[in-house]
Hints:
Helix content is 52%, strand content 11%. The protein is an alpha/beta fold. Strand 5 and strand 6 form a beta hairpin. Helix 4 packs across helix 5 (139-167) and helix 9 (287-299) packs antiparallel against helix 13 (347-354).
Amino acid sequence: xxxxxxxxxxxxxFAHQGRAQLAAFTxxxxxxxxxxxxxxxxxxxxxxxxxxxxxxxxxxxxxxxxLGWSGAYFVDADHIGLKTVDGxxxxxxxxxxxxxxxxxxxxxxxxxxxxxxxxxxxxxxxNVPGIERPLDVPESRIEEIARKYLYAVKEAxxxxxxxxxxxxxxxxxxxxxxxxxxxxQAPVDLLxxxxxxxxxxxxxxxIAPKFTxxxxxxxxxxxxxxxFEKEFNxxxxxxxxxxxxxxxxxxxxxxxxxxxxxxxxxxxxxRAVRKxxxxxxxxxxxxxxxxxxxxxxxAGGDGLEIARDCYTQAVGRFDELCGPYASVIDIxxxxxxxxxxxxxxxxxxxxxxxxxxxxxxxxxxxxxxxxHVGYKVAAQMGTRYTNALGRHEAVIAKNVTENTFDxxxxxxxIYQ
Length: 416
């Protein structure tokens, strides 16, 4: 099983927007750009909304059948480990092996020595085609990388072999995720991480490193865009080099996690991918739920009341909701509207504050980030929330399709 050159991860917390999401990919296909949709949902998200992994497959298959989609599509067991993977094996064909928590744990000394001895041939000045200056790679740096990442790579190998034993070799897509950690991985780190993955026998098709800058949930990139562009180009060059040097799958590509709404780096990503004729996997998961809220607010009546209630409860449960996402949000509480203010908002005011349109003065990234991590509130509303999604399907679906196509697919893959 091979992942096409371009793919995009799409989340759907409440499993109501599959057709609206796929409609955006159909529009891209009509313009001559094939991007494979990858429906993804993590174990944490399933626990919060009280769903089961097979529900994602049901939603994806139903959307594909309804729209007559003939292209490739996948269902991703997002951010799984050995403790959580079993529930996803039957319904998923894409597995994101999250080993970030194992970075920095000590591998066996014998394993470290063997890895350094095997990679010693790259020590010194290393020329990687596509990188402007040679990489400076003292042997001590190889050992440092091994001590930091080798244990994590070996954990990825354990998870991969567990899935392979159940599904069979070549029957699923493997991604390795190392993005949810404190420090970014430089291109030289990525090179030797890929060397370790190859030695571990994991046929990785996409890898998600941690890039420079902040990738906060649902808002734009925070950081030096020029620095990111150089780093991203260098990472693509490293991947091309690693494929040839270490025998990794030819379709290996970079994955950008928390890629939702990172508008300022979409241009650099698009230029780099075209320049190097590379592939790309980008995850844009949580913003679909925000488009549901925007649609409910815009619908007025009971929809607006639900949207207001979601915010009221989110403010009251701030620490509980934000704690698990502390590393990927930056919320200035003093810039949040009061509950009393939101209670007086019209549907249009609510939508304008939440919709990611930086040209509008009403847009509030603090409001947006809090609601992004506040889907637990809607989940606990139960049928009050999900029934409203059905009643206001038309306006919500329009928002979801426009968000997926206009703000993401078009900007990443289509703009000249």
